[in-house]
Amino acid sequence: xxxxxxxxHSLAYAFTGLVxxxxxxxxxxxxYPPLIPAIVNQKWFTxxxxxxxxxxNLTGYIIGxxxxxxxxxxxxxxxxxxxxxxxxxxxxxxxAFNLSFPLYFTLRVLAGITGGVLMVxxxxxxxxxxSKEKKGLxxxxxxxxxxxxxxxSGTIIPLLVNKGxxxxxxxxAVTAIVLILVAWNGWPKGSNERHNITSITQGSGVRFWNKxxxxxxxxxxxxxxxxxxxxxxWVDFVSRGLNLGIGTGTQLWVLLGLSAAIxxxxxxxxxxxxxxAKSIRISLLIKAIGVVLxxxxxSIWSLVISSIFVGSLALGISSLAAxxxxxxxxxxxxxxxxxxMTVTYSIAHAFTAYILTYLFSVYGSYYMLFTIGAISLxxxxxxxxxxxxxVEI
Length: 393
Description:
With 393 residues, this protein is an all-alpha fold. The chain is built from 14 helices and no strands.
């Protein structure tokens, strides 16, 4: 496809990608946490079981990330994406019923698997049909779908819960089905192909696990670690740690989600101007400032800026990392390498969440958590700088 044709179709492709991640991750993953209080209060499950169901989705996400490229070897890209979207909607329908814990757990694992597969396949599938000078902005549109899901989780979803859990899950399912139908034919012609890995070398004959790519993966994992304090502890820190109440904590979470919906667009626009590599390391430093701000001041202005900085760059950096991968790796290997990066991010995020939870249980210090997060992000920025200075393909 020539560059002029790519430019004319870029926005439509971006919308298709946005819808895909909105359904698969925005709702499939982030639509569950706001339901936990209702699940417990309405006695569907205990607090411990509800938390395990949240972990089940993350476990499934890791499985999906690991198996995505393997499945793509046997099932064509768009066909596999559509299958995962339909399966996601079906898990919403299943969760609308007060099932036994093992069945519910299975449904949440499946929703995680579909989300992992969609995260690995969506951006690389569309980047191949996106003009070079628009990859940043289009990537931003795609990843903003996840941010929209986070924003919805703190605004509309609590209103639905008041009408009942079953109705909420049915609303998820109907929304997903409508969005799937709207974007069903929005994929580029020729994108429905298998992931055919004939070699583990790039076009120049250099193995893709060169120093540049390895450092990029490490930098992306550092980003995952730095995001944990806000994803796991932010609302609790504001509500209980600062004694500002659950209302303020929820409002700042909504602000973080809204920023996550807009952030990828801004970072993508900037990346198209100054490049992906420079944008990543600058974003990591700004995110580090957002994480460290509560250590400097706990005034409301500081908390607001922290929510905006961290929220806008949470998915903004993911979009940049996907675009950077497309720059460094030949098209036939992008899904494989991006899959590895997604898996690394997921494992680093989950492992760090457990470690920081343990540290907090022992020391009871929120400030220790934010310090660890900020240091990790600074290390990630430095690592990305070293990656950009390495020999590129």
